[in-house]
Amino acid sequence: MEIRPVRYDHPDAVTLDALVQQEYVLRYGDPDVTPLDPEMFVPPNGVYLLAYEDGRPLATGGWRTRDEDGEGYADGDAEIKRMFVTAEARGRGLARRILAALEDDARAAGRTRMVLETGIKQPEALELYASSGYLPVAKFGHYRYYDDSRHLGKSLLP
Predict the structure, then answer these.
(1) How many whole angstroms separate alpha carbon 109 and alpha carbon 111?
(2) pLDDT at 11 over 90
(3) Residue 158 pLDDT more than 90?
(4) Distance CA 67, CA 88 (A)
(5) 29 Cβ partners below 8 Å, 6+ apart?
(6) What 3-state DSSP class applies to 19?
(7) Share of the chain above pLDDT 90, in %
(8) DSSP string covering 98-153, please?
């Protein structure tokens, strides 16, 4: 298994993004419409990671810099986006490995808190984040007014 940074608009990232959007439609009835731009994930302002095995992309996740902007973010935030593991690769710890790599990268970039938004119809994600030390935080971002949205955070400070 190899985890490597790619651009958010890399063909493999686009393929996995389409799969995660299908997953959102299946679970929630609609895709995630949070505005994202490939430049948001370019270091030092973020990173986008793909996990590969035998040349096949199996998992993805990224973080982007967020600071106080009236949408509930705080200065120093790093927001996780597009955490996803393909169906055939689930249960192998890939999401946990991607998450740890994202936290390490954001910390190295000087970010002080990792935040994310997920939904109640993603119990696997809620379990992963809870077991990784994420706690509820004040709602932020695009889905801050949605009742089925959960907002979590974790300090990146030593």
Answers:
(1) 6
(2) yes
(3) no
(4) 36
(5) none
(6) helix
(7) 98
(8) HHHHHHHHHHHTT--EEEEEEETT-HHHHHHHHHTT-EE----STTTT-TTEEEEE
